[in-house]
Amino acid sequence: DSGERMNLLGRMSFQVPAGMALTGCMLQFYRTVPAVVFWQWVNQSFNAVVNYTNRNAASAISPRQIAVAYVTATGTALATAVGLNLYTKRAPPLVARWVPFAAVAAANCVNIPMMRQQEIINGITVTDEDNNELGRSRRAAVKGITQVVVSRITMAAPGMIILPIIMERLEKFPFMKRIRLFHGPLQVLLCGGFLLFMVPAACALFPQRCSLALADLEPELRASIVAKHGDQVPYIYFNKGL
């Protein structure tokens, strides 16, 4: 949107190396509250960078809004993780292993909309099929951000749901009990295997250039487009971000 180069940490191409390390550590260190707090905080700090980098950059966001988004999302993740961690103390071990995913999913539902709140408040630029600007739409922003939230949760789901089942069964074998020191690195590598496929798959769930039917736009914007173009613009298009 701006023509500026994206920072390295926020690029989707950095999701596999960073995501595998963070996810592996969240899945490995889930038993104690201090460990849960630390790794959820690190993960949400990384997510804040990713969400800011992959926003629709045509909509400006102030440092104060970034700070509020970061604190809100991190607080949501920590409250979810710590609350569920305490709640599942007497639950089967596998249930406790799924707590990190619940925290990540809940935080994504907060982190992404908050980091991109300016798009929801002021709308994002929408165009016709030939990239001619038509105005700004809040409904387009909501649709784009919703799709991004679904993509991010889908990206994390297989690794954070299936991998705990795998580790739960592997840890019952005698050889796994002898190499407890390597459980963490093993989880990191397995997370990398999941993300290697899930990052492109999740990003491809919805097109980057998103569309919305003219009938679904705000009445005032729809009326403006119809007044200028008649029935020649059945759909509008916009960049949903990643």
Automatic annotation (TrEMBL):
Transmembrane helix recorded as keyword: yes
Biological-process GO terms, alphabetical: serine import into mitochondrion
One Pfam short name: SFXNs
GO molecular function: monoatomic ion transmembrane transporter activity
Keyword DNA-binding: no
Membrane-spanning residues: 67-87, 145-166, 186-206
Origin superkingdom: Eukaryota
Residues of the signal peptide: none
Membrane topology: Multi-pass membrane protein
Broad class of where this protein is predominantly found: mitochondrion
Xref: InterPro entries: Mtc (IPR004686)
GO CC annotation: mitochondrial inner membrane
Keyword tags: Amino-acid transport, Membrane, Mitochondrion, Transmembrane, Transmembrane helix, Transport
Compartments it resides in: Mitochondrion membrane
Family: Belongs to the sideroflexin family.
Name assigned to this protein: SFXN2 protein
Source organism per UniProt: Casuarius casuarius (Southern cassowary)
Originating gene: Sfxn2
